[in-house]
Amino acid sequence: MSAAGRVVIDLFTTLDGVAQAPGGPEEDPSDGFPFGGWQAPLIDEAVGAGVDEAMRDMDGLLLGRRTYDIFAGYWPHHTTGPEGAIGQLFNRIPKYVATRDSGYPLEWEGSSRIGDNLAAEIAELRTRHRQVNVIGSVDFVQTLLAERLYDELRMWVYPIVLGTGKKVFPTGAAPANLRLTTAPVVSDRGAVLLRYAPEPGTPQTGTMGE
């Protein structure tokens, strides 16, 4: 495997940047989040097709601890039916959980731990995989964004505002430049797929009209 492997972040967010618990009320109720499952009423065929496309080249899965625990408790038991293709893929490919806890239980077959030296470990993953996807894992994603340890940020942005919850770019996020890599895709329910790549440097300032 060449050193050209990609790290792709996949997120569902609201218009105000909230990415907490889109899939269900029990996904991440931390801090009393009252809108768990906000994405469910808005899912449509375009988003489903986008999810399928995002997984087409995936041969590794990289997750934060909370998302890993959710996935490990769910996907081993969902390998048939409508979700069967996703379950089979997730169970087949290597899984990596980002944690500094060397005793963290890894009960999902094919799982291993990273987190002691994240930059070096992700560089190593690039040599072993064609594409490693990061799904959900908002807290971990903020670290990847701040340290620019990713190649593409893919966000389905939904036309709702929640006003509370974990945001992709919270107050204090590291300033960064990004580049839109493809034209946005708009679903029938008004969700917009935005795909960005990191750019060098930080945002510049100026005066309008000069």
Automatic annotation (TrEMBL):
An MF annotation (GO) of this entry: 5-amino-6-(5-phosphoribosylamino)uracil reductase activity
Name under which the protein is recorded: Dihydrofolate reductase
Highest taxon, organism lineage: Bacteria
Protein's GO biological process: riboflavin biosynthetic process
Lineage: Bacteria, Bacillati, Actinomycetota, Actinomycetes, Micrococcales
Organism name: Microbacterium keratanolyticum
Transmembrane segments: none
Pfam families assigned to the protein according to its UniProt record, in alphabetical order: RibD_C
Residues in coiled coil: none
Gene3D superfamilies: Dihydrofolate Reductase, subunit A
InterPro entries (UniProt xref): DHFR-like_dom_sf (IPR024072), RibDG_C (IPR002734), Riboflavin_Biosynth_HTPR (IPR050765)
